[in-house]
Each structure stands twice: as structure tokens, then as C-alpha cells.
Specification:
Layout (H helix, E strand, L loop, with lengths): L19 H25 L7 E5 L5 H8 L5 E6 L2 H11 L5 E5 L12 E7 L8 H11 E20 L5 H14 L10 H7 L3 E11 H4 L1 H20 L4 H13 L3 E12 L5
Parallel strand pairs: 1-2, 1-4, 2-3, 4-5
Antiparallel strand pairs: 5-7, 6-7
Helix pairs in contact: 1-8, 5-8, 8-9
Bound molecules: S-adenosylmethionine.
């Protein structure tokens, strides 16, 4: 029997978040900022109405909603292991035709194999303890000919000028904290290889840039740096107060120019003849 309430491990522990309301707001803002570019890109990758679409690790469901609106005559399912996030998403989904929630992880769920035309995993791979194994589950859930798209961050693709001298330490600490709970802040560059190893064909990737000019400084700060400061505060208490304050003060009060890029990787489950 599949136990869909098994926690999957990895580094997105919503129940232990220092401010859950703040994290929900961060996820919402991230969708508002990125969706116009993301929607165009997903359509270019073949997302279209009438499909069976899986939103892997849908969190509170902001993206699933957007996907369902692009797919009004199809089926969109949000898969989410965290009970509280699943409850929030499920409540929102009730009002949207064709959209439903399945509580579970990639490894433990009641989804049908070979059912989906399109699987989207957005900022999920960086939190997985065993991304290689999990990609094999995505492969299993797709129909022959089905497409997968993974979008994720990579700390090597974040630039700011001028750069506060304390930022290097903040990046190092946040990478360590996430790695200690099973995540990987350098996952972006590994996505194409993960898809190839899972058996996908026609694997490729693009880089999607988000600049301070396009989003505004507060939104880019939120997207690329402010969550790190909260994680460091949570993990190290008073030890890093000065470091965190200096960096927060810089991003809030100085003029800076920045860009954070995400990697968008894709592949196809080949039809076997
Ligand atoms: C940063 S959140 C991203 C939420 C959403 N995709 C978005 O972009 O707003 C990562 C999500 O992945 C989920 N997750 C973690 N491990 C998972 C797994 N093994 N299978 C499915 N989802 C998982 C987490 O519970 C969390 O909701």
C-alpha cells in the first residue's frame, strides 16, 4: 500500500518555516514576477489546451492555477507532499474546472502511470534528496511522447553590482544550510544531465534571466537573496545578525543592478516503436 503522507525528505520543510505567511507570499510574488516570461516559454515547449498536465511539487498551487487556465478543456493535477500546502492548494483548486490536487510525493502517490502529456517541476529539483531517482518517477508518469520541463535556480547564475563584501559569506552559508537538509543550490546546471540519466530524449535547456530593471529591485531581492537571509537567521540565530543586517541594508537602501537566471531544461519520453 502506498503511503502518500510519507514525508519525501529534502530541503523544503514548510512546517518548519520561520514564517509560513512570508514563505507563501514569497512563492506568490515569484509567480507574479516570472509568469509572463514562463508562460511564453512553456507554450513554445508545447504546452497546449486539452492535455493531461502534472504540476510536480505544486506547493500552494499558484502555478497550477496558471497552468489550468492555459488548459481549460484538459486535466491539470497538482502533486504536493506537504499536508498544509496540499490543503491550501486543494481549497483553491475547488473553484477551477479541470484542476485537482493529489497529496503525495513523486515516489508515493496514486497517479496513473503513462497518463500525463506534460510534467512541470518548478523550483522542486533543488529541494530533492535524490533528484536522480525522482526523475525516473516523472518518466514513469508520462505517456510515450510526453514532455517534461524542469525550472530551477543555480547560485552560479546570480550577479549583482556593486556587490556588498558580505554577500559571498551569505551565499556560502545558504548553500551549506540547504545542502545539510538534502538540497542543492547548484542544481540548475545539473538538470539536463538528470533528464538524460532518467531516460529522456531530445534533452535541451534555456537560460531565463530576471533583472532588477525588469522586475524592480525589491522583487529581485526577494527572488534571489532575501529568503537566504531568513534561512541564515533561522539556522544560526544571533551568530550572524550583523552579517544579515548589513546585506539586508545594502539591498534595501543602495542602488544596485542585478540579474538572477534560472535554467529551464526539457526532454521527451520517446515513443518505443
Ligand atoms: C519551493 S517549493 C515550489 C512550489 C511551486 N512549484 C512553485 O514554484 O511555487 C518546492 C515544493 O516541492 C515540494 N516537494 C519536495 N519534495 C518533493 C517530492 N519528492 N515530490 C513532490 N514534491 C516535492 C515541496 O513540498 C514544495 O512544495
Amino acid at each position: 500500500m502506498i503511503n502518500t503522507s510519507d514525508p519525501p525528505g529534502g530541503s523544503h520543510a514548510f512546517s518548519q518555516h520561520p514564517s509560513r505567511a512570508r514563505e507563501l507570499d514569497r512563492l506568490r510574488q515569484q509567480v507574479l514576477a516570472a509568469w509572463p516570461m514562463e508562460e511564453l516559454w512553456l507554450k513554445r515547449r508545447g504546452l497546449t489546451d486539452g492535455m493531461h498536465v502534472l504540476d510536480v511539487g505544486c506547493g500552494p498551487g499558484f502555478v497550477s492555477e496558471k497552468l489550468a487556465r492555459l488548459n481549460p478543456t484538459g486535466v491539470t493535477i497538482g502533486l504536493e507532499p506537504d499536508p498544509e500546502l496540499a490543503r491550501l492548494a486543494g481549497k483553491r483548486f475547488d473553484a477551477i474546472p479541470g484542476l485537482s490536487l493529489q497529496q503525495g510525493s513523486l515516489a508515493h502517490n496514486h497517479l496513473d502511470e503513462s497518463y500525463f502529456d506534460f510534467a512541470y517541476a518548478r523550483f522542486v529539483a533543488q529541494h530533492l534528496a535524490s533528484p536522480q531517482d525522482e526523475m525516473r518517477h516523472v518518466f514513469r508518469l508520462l505517456k510515450p511522447g510526453g514532455q517534461v520541463v524542469l525550472v530551477d535556480a543555480d547560485d552560479g547564475l546570480i550577479l549583482v553590482h556593486p556587490e556588498p563584501p558580505e554577500l559571498l559569506e551569505v551565499m556560502r552559508l545558504s548553500e551549506t544550510i540547504q545542502a545539510e537538509s538534502g538540497g542543492d543550490r547548484w542544481i540548475g546546471r545539473k538538470l539536463p544531465a538528470l533528464l538524460t540519466q532518467a531516460g529522456f530524449a531530445d534533452v535541451g535547456f534555456d537560460v531565463l534571466p530576471f533583472t532588477s530593471h525588469q522586475l524592480g529591485r525589491p522583487a529581485l531581492f526577494d527572488l534571489a537573496w532575501s529568503f537566504r537571509l531568513r534561512r541564515i537567521e533561522q539556522a544560526s540565530g544571533a551568530d550572524n545578525t550583523l552579517l544579515v543586517e548589513k546585506v539586508r541594508d545594502f539591498f534595501t537602501n543602495q542602488n544596485w543592478y542585478g540579474v538572477a537566471c534560472v535554467i529551464a531544461a526539457y526532454g521527451v519520453k520517446e515513443c518505443v516503436r
